[in-house]
Amino acid sequence: VHLQASGGGLVQPGGSLRLSCAASGRTFTNWKMGWFRQAPGKEREFVASVTWNLGTTSYADSVKGRFTISRDGAQNTVTLQMNSLKPEDTAVYYCAAQRAMASSYNYWGQGTQVTVSS
């Protein structure tokens, strides 16, 4: 399984960014895909997840109403649309994949830097 994240960058507070994760190496039926982030000096934290089959989503409280996660089965991509960005959203963002029936994420992509600053 290979996960390739892209779309990070520098944005002003209140702006938007769209992160993409291209997933390859197998079919992802019954898997769950997620986005995590890690800010300098902090532990990695959960941001959002989506189930591949039904598209069921889950969000951290800190991003609810601002971020939207989605998946495209035809393109094998997972997207994180980030709106109303705040300086505290600054972090390296990682996409991850969890096998069916697994209790934790099994595969991780390389990070993409998101910086929110004026």
Walkthrough of the structure:
There is one protein chain. The protein is mainly beta and 118 residues long. Helices cover 0% and strands 51% of the residues. The chain contains no helices and 11 strands. The chain has strands spanning 2-6, 9-11, 17-24, 32-38, 45-51, 57-59, 67-72, 77-82, 91-98, 107-108, 112-116. The strands form 2 sheets. Strands 2, 4, 5, 6, 9, 10 and 11 form a 7-stranded mixed β-sheet that branches. It has a 4-stranded antiparallel β-sheet with strand order 1-3-8-7, with no helix packed on it. The mean pLDDT is 95.
Total count of strands? 11
What does the main sheet amount to?
Answer: 7 strands, mixed
Instruction: Give the number of helices.
Output: 0
Helical content (DSSP H or I, runs of 4+): under 10%
Secondary structure blueprint with pairings:
Elements: E1 2-6, E2 9-11, E3 17-24, E4 32-38, E5 45-51, E6 57-59, E7 67-72, E8 77-82, E9 91-98, E10 107-108, E11 112-116
Task: Offer a quick outline of the entry.
With 118 residues, this protein is an all-beta fold. 0% of the residues lie in helices and 51% in strands.
List keywords for this structure.
mainly beta; four-stranded antiparallel beta sheet; 11 strands; single chain; 51% strand; 118 residues; seven-stranded mixed beta sheet
